[in-house]
């Protein structure tokens, strides 16, 4: 029997959906608030912050009429497409979130502890990406 082919996630065109983009941004903002609750464990906070950043990136894609297909590497594809859509001015920010993706995977799948420095960096990056995504999505509104 041949080995199964690895299906890689990729960006593709989809109808722009500002309603979904706004819901994703609301969820991202909620994740940021939840991550700030006193007593939440560091790995839980990190996951919430990472999810906030990922949903902010997805909001940009949805507003622009892009989506990520199912398959391996879909989080990588979200961040790469958001980087392309937001442009070079936000490359450093998305690189910070990409680094956090690796840390998040190690915490989730290898029980690696998250450091305070990693939490602090992701908190700043996640907040900045949510704000950036909100501005970007708002700029696409035609009211």
Helices and strands in order, then pairings?
Blueprint: E1 11-13, H1 18-35, H2 42-64, E2 66-68, H3 74-86, H4 91-110, H5 116-139
Antiparallel strand pairs: 1-2
Helix pairs in contact: 1-2, 1-5, 2-3, 2-4, 2-5, 3-4, 4-5
Notes on the structure:
The chain has 143 residues and is mainly alpha-helical. The chain has a single domain (16-139), classed as Up-down Bundle (Four Helix Bundle (Hemerythrin (Met), subunit A)), CATH 1.20.120. It has helices at residues 18-35, 42-64, 74-86, 91-110, 116-139, and strands at residues 11-13, 66-68. It has a two-stranded antiparallel sheet with strand order 1-2. The radius of gyration is 16 Å and the shape is globular.
In short:
The protein is mostly helical and 143 residues long. Helices cover 69% and strands 4% of the residues. Helix 1 (18-35) runs antiparallel to helix 5 (116-139).
Overall CATH class: Mainly Alpha
Q: Judging from the principal axes of the Cα atoms, what is the shape?
A: globular
Number of DSSP E strands: 2
What is the assigned CATH homologous superfamily?
Nucleotidyltransferases  domain 2
Task: Output the keywords.
143 residues, Four Helix Bundle (Hemerythrin (Met), subunit A), 5 helices
